[in-house]
């Protein structure tokens, strides 16, 4: 069960690193090459959206069908286990949402760079006329 969360955590870390690299100031030639490389990788990495959505649904289903431990019949160990599973579910939900949000941010950054490049080309062609 923990393998999918470990994979998701690594994907979020990689997405964060890519977002930082894309937003760092760099020369125009390097920035265009990085943007084109990331744009090529974006299409295959779209799998993260349905994967995260499925994991969120799994968290929701487990939360709805979890045994409640809120009474005097629960021991301290059961109450600790219940709270620990609640905290893990919250952490995993944050991971899923951040994976989707970072993917969207990277997509928009790449789209903005492509739009800027096309506008610069249009401006250059107008100046040449």
TrEMBL record:
GO biological process terms held by the UniProt record: endoplasmic reticulum to Golgi vesicle-mediated transport; intracellular protein transport; protein localization to endoplasmic reticulum exit site
Membrane-spanning residues: 6-25, 37-57, 92-110
Keywords: Endoplasmic reticulum, ER-Golgi transport, Membrane, Oxidoreductase, Protein transport, Transmembrane, Transmembrane helix, Transport
Alphabetized GO MF terms: oxidoreductase activity
Protein's UniProt keywords contain Lyase: no
GO cellular component terms, A-Z: endoplasmic reticulum membrane
Membrane topology: Multi-pass membrane protein
Domain of life per record: Eukaryota
Annotated compartments: Endoplasmic reticulum membrane; Membrane
Major site of localization recorded for this protein: endoplasmic reticulum
Domain BAP29/BAP31 transmembrane residues, every copy: 1-120
PROSITE patterns cross-referenced by the UniProt entry: ALDEHYDE_DEHYDR_CYS
Pfam families for the chain: Bap31
Stated family: Belongs to the BCAP29/BCAP31 family.
Function per UniProt: May play a role in anterograde transport of membrane proteins from the endoplasmic reticulum to the Golgi.
Name assigned to this protein: Endoplasmic reticulum transmembrane protein
Originating species: Erythranthe guttata
